[in-house]
Amino acid sequence: MRQVLSEGRHGRQLHLIIGPVGAGKSTFARALGLKHRAVLLILDDWMAQLFGADERPATGRIEWYLERRDRCFEQIWKLTAALCEVGTRVVLEIGLIRRDERAVFYRRVDDAGYDLAVYVLDAPRSVRRDRVMRRNEERGETFAQVVPLELFELASNMWEPPDDEEASERAVRFM
User: Which among 13, 61, 119, 167 is least surrounded, fewest beta carbons within 10 Å?
Assistant: First the structure.
């Protein structure tokens, strides 16, 4: 991690941080953003600010979340593109826990002609679960919203780390 934080790059650079819930992505994103003097865009912050006070439906909660996540993602992408066009580095922590979601994102990045570095953070599920439950209680610096245990488990089950093909096609760094 120190090596990554000590490196500097210039130009229209995107840094994408991926990993399962509780892997330390937000903490790493903040450090990476400071080191590279980059704008930090974290999906959870947007979701909490824009929809945190909204009442969740009794049924269809996943659909409710996904629709709002996708709207936030589109706005985050528009802001990312605008920042890159003026030469500002951007650190993104925007979910993308599934390979198919990342493939769509990679196509956007390629079409726009941006440089992309991908950082993968992970930890054993028990460690991540403890971190998330502690973050729920302490509500410290990286807290955006409560992550119920059932949501933690669901998201953890959905996590697909980059396979060999994805890692070989991208500048993927396993932290």
Answer: 61
